[in-house]
Structures are given as structure tokens and as C-alpha cells.
Amino acid sequence: MAVDAEIEFPTIEFRSSDLKQGTEGWNRLCKRVREACETFGCFDVVYKKISTKIREDAFELLKELVEVPVERKQKNTSPLPYHGWVGPCEQVSVLYEGFGVGDASNYDSVKSFAQLMWPNGHPRFTDTIHTLTTQMEELNKLIWLMLTDSYGLQEDSLKMNYTTLVRMMKYLAPPPGEYERGLFAHTDKPVSTLICEDKISGLEIEVNDGQWIKLTNLSPSSFVFIVGDPLKA
Fold first, then answer.
1. Transmembrane residues, as ranges (predicted)?
2. What is the mean pLDDT of the chain?
3. Could you tell me where the beta strands, DSSP code E, fall in the chain?
């Protein structure tokens, strides 16, 4: 996979002063969001309303999660692909491990997942992951509102019944000197995806001309918004 680092990936900062609907700042922001989605299908959003501490706490807790015994990880099941635990394997990737929590903005859903992973539950894990999930869901809805506004649509144009799926993923480093994909190239099936990365760069995006760019030097307050297949029509 060829990676072109010279393409400038759009970064859009959501300042509090521009988040009041109907203002000039809001309208400019909506235009930039729409253009980024139309051109790249994704963008880097800098959103400081979600604290770096809650992110750091979440990633520290994920280190505990990946150390859970395999027999407990296997309890994270789902009939839907990639909605449960996927361990390193040849069919997907030997470098990838992922967990899934459905309806994750519901506190009880996260609590039930924690009780599967740890016999006595894990209140701190539950509180932290639920808080971060809820805040990310609010950011995702804000971006949807900007898109509907930018196209002159009514606010309820993209309203739909949905639940938030949280995927918690770990990628192993390939052997020294080798390039190996952590996961096969794919598009996202949900309406949209919001990615919260740790400080290790690894995400690659294919742009319209077929070139790939590797996202590096993201802000500690960055999230990557990706347009899913249903919105690409």
C-alpha cells in the first residue's frame, strides 16, 4: 500500500465561539465540514470540550482490558460481524484485537460488558468508558447537525433510531523493518464513525484519487470523523 504523506488532510477546530447555530462562525464551520466530507470523506476535528484526561484514563484502562484472560474475552460475543471480540488471526489480521460494546451510551450496557471481562465488574472502567462514549456521541451528533445545516436541510432530516457501537482496538507493531497492515482496507458500514486515537500514529486514509495518507501529529484533542457508506449516496 503506497502512502503519500504530502496530501494535506483537513483539520477543523471546533471553537466554542463558533458552535452557536446561525452565527457567521457556525456557518463557516458548516461549510468547511461539508467540503471536507465531500472531498475526503473524513476529517480531523479538534474538539477541546472532551478533556485529554478522560481520553488518557480510557487508554490506561484499555491496557487492563487487553490483559484479560482469553476465556473471558470470548464472552464478548455478537451475531453481527466485529460487534464482539476479535482476536489476532489470519482471517482478519495477526496484528489486530478488538472488543465491541453495543448501545454503549447506555450505562448498563457498558457495566454488563465490564462484568463479562472482570468477575467483580470494574466500576472505574464502566464510568470512564461510558463518559467518553457519551461525549463522543454528542460530538458526532453536532457534526451531523452541521452537515444538515450546510445543505439547507431541516434538523430532523438525518434523525434516525440508532445505538452507538464502541469498538476498542489494539494493533500490535509489525516486525522491525517490515510493513504490514494492521487491518485490511475497508469502508465503514455505519452512518458515521468517530475515532479516538492514542498517541501512536497508525491510521491511514484513502483519498479520492486512490492515494493513501497516514495521519500523523494529531492534536491531543483530535478525533477523526469518517463518513459511512449510508451517507455516501
1. none
2. 85
3. 11-13, 42-46, 96-101, 166-171, 192-195, 204-206, 212-214, 222-227
Q: Whats the size of the chain, residue-wise?
A: 233
DSSP string, 8-61: ---EEE--GGG-STTSHHHHHHHHHHHHHHHHTSEEEEE-TTS-HHHHHHHHHH
Strand boundaries in 33-191, DSSP class E: 42-46, 96-101, 166-171
| Grid cell at residue 22 | 446561525
Span 112-151, pLDDT tens digits: 999 999 999 999 999 999 999 999 999 999 999 999 999 8
Determine the Cα–Cα distance for residues 189 and 202; give it in Å rounded to an integer. Answer: 21
Question: In the structure grid, which three cell numbers stand for residue 146, read together?
Answer: 452541521
**Domains in the chain, ordered, with CATH?**
11-228 (2.60.120.330)
